[in-house]
Design goal:
mainly alpha, 3 helices
Length: 75
């Protein structure tokens, strides 16, 4: 039983680390653009799409969007 518990904790840790890395990437890209880099240069440098950069720049704050109500899909 202890092994299953540690696997669950490791998967949760992996998810948390992924969110942290995504947040750092967003901050780096936004700083790059705000300090004079173009969106095209940032997209090529960091290997992400330009649409993502435009979306990040249009937000007022860098935080996750929490879904208030998630409707279940029933077939």
């Amino acid at each position: 039983m202890k092994q299953k518990l540690s696997i669950i904790k490791l998967s949760q840790l992996d998810t948390i680390l992924n969110y942290a890395l995504q947040f750092r990437l967003k901050k780096k890209v936004i700083n790059f653009v705000e300090n004079g880099g173009t969106i095209t240069e940032a997209a090529h440098t960091f290997g992400i799409g330009g649409a993502s950069i435009y979306k990040w720049l249009s937000r007022l704050k860098l935080s996750t969007n929490k879904v208030k109500i998630r409707r279940r899909k029933l077939d």
